[in-house]
Amino acid sequence: MSEFNEKSDDTTQAGSYGAPDVGLVADSEDATQSSTTTGMGQEPVSLAFGMVHKDPLTVRPRRSSIVICACLGVAALILSACLWLFAVRTVTGQEYDDMVWSHFSQILPSWFIDVLSIFVKTYVDIAVVVVFSLVAVIVNVVRRRWLLLVQLAVFGMLCFAVAATVKRVLPRPFLVNVASYKSNSAPSGHTLMAAAGAVVLICAVPRVWRAVAALIGWAFTFLVALSVVQAQWHRPSDPIMSMLIVAGLAFIMLAFTRASGMDEPGTRMSSASIQIVATVMITAGIVAVLYGGYVFWQIEPGLDLSAQWARSGACAAAFALMLGVSLVTFGTVAALRQLTASPLSKLGLIGAPPEPPKPSEERND
Fold first, then answer.
1. Are 127 and 339 in contact (CB under 8 A)?
2. Which of 25, 119, 150, 360 has the greatest number of C-beta atoms within 10 Å?
């Protein structure tokens, strides 16, 4: 009705300025066509432009989604700091890390240790991360997601800076004699960069590939985390801390999603694959974390004496905690990426209004 009224008003206004005489119709035909083109062509274009920009969800996520991403990001970073304080600044934390560091290989089957030996090689990890990054760059360039490309570049540089500097800055006080080395080893640089590369891949691919990318990224990061503990490069708290840092930075990055970093209006829709995969990953991850915490609570009395009966439980708890944190991290990243990239609205689902017909088409009609 509003569009009809606007066109009616234009017609009435043109008539009020004075109708041309019959003898002047031929002389003023070009002017009439020009005026018709201006009145009938530009008005729907401006109307369509206004409809697109009146819906803020075409250029940014919902405010609630932005707040969720920011709050979860800060919470993940706080959890990583709390984990470091417990693992490094308490006697119980140092004893637990040292017990798992010394006996983790004993709970793993030999064939699985052979698999982990592949991912402990630095050049393999670098190669996989480079492949993830190249795929992300190519996809963004082809899809012209320039703002998303900038987001992911800044995110990657921040993760690299954390991996290169934080380990050297954080202290490790001497609280108890340990079998592992005395210097600080948190966070795990290998795990941090593996998780960062996986997050970049998840955020870069289109909607139909996000669930698959989340599973691939989780599997790669989890195997890297296990490999650095099994090879005694890191204590179990180190890769967990790395995954929490990456999760926090990724959630904060997603809070800044804008414009070309989102799915195009007209292509947005809910994703059954992401709903299923993210839900299963987050649920299974929470269960694994709770199980790991329960086992840790059971074996905690045996840590002071390095009791033999506590070793298998300590290692099982570490395995469950690394599994749970990795599942929650990538399940949540996939869910929040979908939430920020495809906020559902009427305009987002159907796209921009159709363009008005060309003047030649109007004359033919």
1. no
2. 119
Q: Are 80 and 251 in contact (CB under 8 A)?
A: no
pLDDT-based confidence at residue 60 (cuts at 50, 70, 90): confident
Those residues with Cβ within 8 angstroms of residue 280's Cβ, 6 or more apart along the chain or in another chain: 331
Give the closest residue to 124 by CA, choosing from 253, 220, 247.
220
Give the closest residue to 55 by CA, choosing from 355, 348, 349: 348
DSSP state of 207: H
DSSP tag of 259? G
- Look up the pTM and report it: 0.80
Q: Are 36 and 315 in contact (CB under 8 A)?
A: no
Contact assessment for residue 330 and residue 202, using Cβ atoms and an 8 Å cutoff: yes
pLDDT at 31: 39
What's the pLDDT tens digit per position in 128-158?
999 999 999 999 999 888 999 999 999 999 9
Structure tokens at 15: 């008539």
Residues 319/222, Cβ–Cβ less than 8 Å: no
How far apart CA 232 and CA 204 sit, in angstroms, is: 33
Closest CA to 232 of 108, 111, 346, 317: 108
What's residue 262's pLDDT? 80
| Torsion region of 263: left, alpha or beta (phi above 0 gives left; psi -120 to 50 gives alpha) | beta
308 burial via Cβ count (<10 Å: 0-12, 13-18, 19+): exposed
In the block, tokens 């941090």 appear at 192
Q: Chain centroid to CA 218: how far?
A: 12
